[in-house]
Specification:
Blueprint: H1 2-67, E1 73-82, E2 87-96, H2 98-107, E3 112-116, H3 119-125, E4 133-134, E5 146-154, H4 162-166, E6 172-176, E7 182-186, H5 189-192
Antiparallel strand pairs: 1-2, 2-5, 3-4, 3-6, 6-7
């Protein structure tokens, strides 16, 4: 009988130990699950913040595209001249306002310029458009807000450049993004340089 009781006691002890281990194991799994969940929540928050930053960046770039018009982007002067070696020299002086200037310094976007020529040039010289010109790169140390685009083109001997020098109408300025796709078009640079928000009829796309 004592042997039977001893066996029962051993069995009971083993059962109790097993129960304790099982409860401990469940508690450990529960703690581990909570730790994993907390880590996942932290990762999701960080991912969300990164996505918001990317989204804000895209919004800023959309705003950047819309900034290349008065009063943010202003053509101060546009002129055509004849060089000593009988080339056509094009000069465009332009200024960024403070808002666009600050954006350009902070983001340093890649952008380009392209000039399309008027019918008079196309028909008489076969010049259709300029080469693509990379826009000036700004950074946080930049202080200059006014810049120039300068282009020289070969023109046929005898071409009447004087009329263009007096009134250089019909030249279009394209602002291109990093993929060299147009984001803005200034329909007539000559009239745009005299832009008045109340009087100008310049078309800006």
């Amino acid at each position: 009988m004592d042997g039977v009781n001893s066996m029962k006691k051993v069995a009971l002890i083993n059962w109790l130990l097993g129960s304790v281990l099982m409860i401990s194991g469940c508690s450990l799994v529960s703690v581990t699950d909570k730790s994993d969940k907390k880590q996942m929540d932290t990762m999701n928050v960080e991912k969300s913040k990164k996505e918001e930053a990317v989204s804000q960046k895209k919004t800023d770039l959309i705003d950047f595209e819309e900034e290349f018009q008065p009063p943010h982007f202003q053509v101060e002067d546009f002129s055509i001249s004849n060089t000593v070696d009988e080339k056509m020299h094009i000069t465009i002086d332009y200024t960024f306002d403070q808002e666009l200037f600050d954006f350009m310094k902070s983001n340093s976007p890649e952008y380009y310029y392209l000039i399309e020529y008027p019918t008079q040039l196309v028909e008489n010289t076969n010049l259709v458009k300029s080469d693509i010109i990379k826009g000036v790169e700004l950074d946080e140390s930049s202080t200059q807000m006014t810049y120039s685009i300068e282009i020289e083109e070969e023109i046929p001997e005898g071409f009447d450049i004087d009329s263009l020098m007096k009134e250089p109408t019909g030249f279009q300025l394209f602002i291109l993004n990093k993929d060299k796709d147009p984001i803005h078009i200034i329909d007539d640079i000559y009239y745009y340089s005299d832009y008045d928000p109340d009087l100008s009829q310049t078309i800006v796309e």
